[in-house]
Automatic annotation (TrEMBL):
It comes from Bifidobacterium angulatum DSM 20098 = JCM 7096. InterPro entries: DNA_methylase_N6_adenine_CS (IPR002052), MethylTrfase_TaqI-like_dom (IPR011639), N4_N6_ade-DNA_methylase (IPR050953), rRNA_Ade_Mease_Trfase_CS (IPR020596), SAM-dependent_MTases_sf (IPR029063). It holds the Pfam family Eco57I. This is site-specific DNA-methyltransferase (adenine-specific). The keyword Methyltransferase applies. It catalyses: a 2'-deoxyadenosine in DNA + S-adenosyl-L-methionine = an N(6)-methyl-2'-deoxyadenosine in DNA + S-adenosyl-L-homocysteine + H(+). Residues 105-196 form the Type II methyltransferase M.TaqI-like domain. Its EC number is 2.1.1.72. GO terms for molecular function: endonuclease activity; nucleic acid binding; rRNA (adenine-N6,N6-)-dimethyltransferase activity; site-specific DNA-methyltransferase (adenine-specific) activity.
């Protein structure tokens, strides 16, 4: 028996990872305090349990789980890296007599639905859309971690529990829509714990995404989900602030977006942007596929081209001095990228971390047909197939609404990433077009208007004060 502790084996394995393989197989090993918190989410039981660890690395997650489980429990750990598989064996042998380490890809192992506890910190890698075959047909996944989680959930016995350490990205956006719907239909969502700081918990692993713990179980949905919206990766999780919330209060819309907090009650009387007849689309010009139409100068019959560089606070300026072409030639007319003249609200799809607001909205009134770069979203009152400009006052009012603090806070609770998705925006609570027009009468869309004035005017208009 080795004299090294499970944490020592993990630390030594982390220090000796080959950079190429680490990248290729996404080897980010869970530090001991996070492993303890993850394993603590399983319901204690006096009965022996069957434990499964998918992509086990040094084996830390299943070893900690086995250590907390009753005598007679067993572990199956699957790890495709031979060196890490040996580390898993060494870790697990210290805490459990019945251990099987399988040195293969999890996708090459046939697993029965027989496990009481499944624990995993899977690779977080984007993949081209792939359908994973399930008992009820299939589920489309776009990331390896979703593929691992589908496999994990399928391996659960009835009443079994699964704890996963994954990024927060599955909770919103289009890419994880199918996965979200599938998971919520197959099991009970029991615990969500979102780590508030990005760097703290995987300090030696250089992980920049927002990471969370999720616990699901193979049983009908429990009455309340336990939510730790600002978890800290130290000490016991139980003692940290948390809420018990009905799942319904966390879910939004047909796309089943999952929030980490209940919505601010001041927003509960508003319908969603989509329900108010507003549609969010993504700019149609992908510049590197349309290099031949970009132009530094205005040409006869050409069109102005807007990038995020043209956003200047709440207003839009064109042309601007920057290293991007400000026009397209009339060749663009045949490429379905030109939008009709009129009023819009432009929203940047990629905000910078240091930016004060996640949502950066700017009012645009164009007297001519124009083109929007693909890194911008634009709000109009048409459909996914047809762009119809907004009434001018509604466009102004919407820009003010999207620039408010309450909406910024709302968006942060929906999305942990700096990307601003059209799908999420469509679910955003929004006043009616008439109310937006009234808002635009109360306040000019101008960069001289400060945040306090925007927030106070909105508060007064909706009698929140
Ligand atoms: C993010 S690391 C986590 C390791 C370990 N579970 C932990 O928490 O420390 C993911 C692990 O999955 C392994 N892995 C990646 N793809 C795999 C696959 N298809 N089958 C099995 N293991 C895989 C990697 O080698 C790596 O050890």
């Amino acid at each position: 028996m080795t004299s090294k502790t499970i944490a020592q084996i993990r630390n030594e394995a982390a220090a000796s990872l080959s950079p190429e393989r680490q990248q290729q197989w996404e080897q980010f090993l869970t530090p001991a305090p996070v492993a303890e918190q993850a394993a603590s989410l399983f319901t204690p039981t006096c009965n022996p349990v069957r434990i499964l660890d998918l992509g086990s690395g040094s084996g830390i997650l299943s070893a900690v789980t086995a250590k907390r489980s009753s005598h007679g429990s067993s572990v199956v750990a699957i790890e495709q890296d031979p060196a890490l598989a040996a580390d898993s064996e060494a870790s697990l042998r210290q805490v459990c007599d019945d251990v099987e380490v399988i040195n293969k890809s999890i996708f090459d192992v046939l697993l029965e639905s027989s496990f009481d506890r499944v624990i995993l910190n899977p690779p977080y890698k984007k993949i081209s859309p792939t359908v994973i075959v399930t008992s009820g047909g299939g589920v489309k996944v776009t990331n390896l971690y979703a593929a691992f989680l589908v496999t994990a959930i399928q391996a659960l016995a009835s009443g079994g529990e699964c704890v996963a350490i994954i990024p927060r990205s599955w909770m919103n956006g289009d890419y994880f829509k199918d996965f979200r719907k599938w998971m919520l239909s197959k099991c009970s969502l029991d615990v969500l714990a979102v780590y508030e700081s990005r760097q703290e918990h995987f300090k030696d692993m250089n992980i920049l995404q927002e990471i969370m713990l999720v616990k699901v179980s193979k049983q009908p949905q429990t009455k309340k989900v336990t939510v730790y919206a600002d978890a800290m990766p130290v000490g016991s999780l139980e003692r940290q602030p948390h809420e018990s919330v009905a799942l319904k209060a966390l879910l939004m819309g047909r796309d089943r977006i999952v929030r980490v907090r209940q919505q601010d009650p001041r927003l509960s009387n508003f319908r969603t942007m989509a329900d108010q007849g507003l549609w969010v689309s993504t700019g149609k010009l992908v510049w590197f596929r349309n290099r031949d139409v970009l132009s530094d100068v205005e040409e006869p019959d050409g069109h102005p081209l807007y990038w995020s560089d043209n956003q200047d606070g709440m207003v839009t300026v064109h042309p601007v001095e920057c290293d991007r072409e400000q026009w397209v030639t009339n060749k663009a007319d045949s490429r379905k990228v030109v939008l009709p003249a009129g009023s819009y609200c432009l929203v940047n799809r990629f905000s910078a971390k240091e930016q004060r607001h996640r949502i950066y909205a700017s009012y645009l009134r164009s007297g001519v047909g124009f083109v929007a770069d693909n890194k911008l979203n634009y709000v109009h009152q048409g459909t996914s197939r047809q762009t119809v400009p907004l009434d001018d006052k509604a466009a102004r009012g919407l820009t003010l609404w999207l620039s408010s603090s309450i909406i910024d806070e709302w968006y942060r609770q929906v999305s942990g990433s700096t990307q601003v998705n059209a799908t999420d925006l469509r679910q955003m609570p929004c006043p009616t077009k008439n109310q937006l027009a009234t808002l635009s009468d109360l306040l000019p869309v101008s960069n001289d208007v400060g945040q306090d004035r925007i927030d106070e005017t909105i508060e007064r208009l909706f009698s929140w004060a």
